[in-house]
Prior knowledge:
Structural class: mainly alpha
Helix content: over 70%
Radius of gyration: 21 Å
Distance between the termini: 53 Å
Strand content: under 5%
Low-confidence stretches: none
Largest sheet: none
Number of domains: 1
Order of helices and strands: HHHHHH
Shape: globular
Number of strands: 0
Number of helices: 6
Amino acid sequence: xxxxxxxxxxxxxxxxxxxxxxxxxxxxxxxxxxxxxxxxxxxxxxxxxxxxxxxxxxxxxxxxxxxxxxxxxxxxxxxxxxxxxxxxxxxxxxxxxxxxxxxxxxxxxxxxxxxxxxxxxxxxxxxxxxxxxxxxxxxxxxxxxxxxxxxxxxxxxxxxxxxxxxxxxxxxxxxxxxxxxxxxxxxxxxxxxxxxxxxxxxxx
Length: 204
C-alpha cells in the first residue's frame, strides 16, 4: 500500500511540475500580450483586441494548474505562530485535519466547476466580448487544474495518515507539515546555489 501511494505521489509530482511550468508560460505569454497591446495603443493607436480577456483566462487556468505543485512543495501560506510551539504528535494530527478539510473543500470546488463546464457545453455558451470565445475551452482547462489538485491531495492524505498511524511522525511533517524557518532557509540557499552554478568559474 505504501509503495503504491509513493508511486502515486511521484506521478502527481511529475504532473504538477509539468503543469506549473505550463502555467508559468501562460502567465508570461499573457503579460507579453498585454504589454504589446498597451504599446500599440500608445504608439500607433491600434489594439490587438481581447488581450485582457485572454490574460484573464490564463490567470484562472494557471492558478488551478499551480495548486498541486504548491501543496507538494509545502509552499502554501500557513498561519503557524502557535503551530511551531506544539508537540510533534499534535501538529501531525493538525496536518491530517488540514489535508482532510482541503480535500472536502477542493472536492466541492471541483464538482461545482464541472457543473459550470457542463452548462457551457450544454448551452454552447460564448463570452459576450468581441472574441466571442466558446467558454468550454478555457473552462475545461480550468477544471483540469482542479482535478489535478484532487489527484495530488488524495495520495498525500492517505500516505500522511498511514505515517501518523504507524508512528512515523517525521514523515507526516515532511509530507504535510508547515515548512520551518530552517527548511525555508535551506531551500533558498539551494536555489541560490543552482542559479550561481552556471556562472561560476573554476580556479586556475
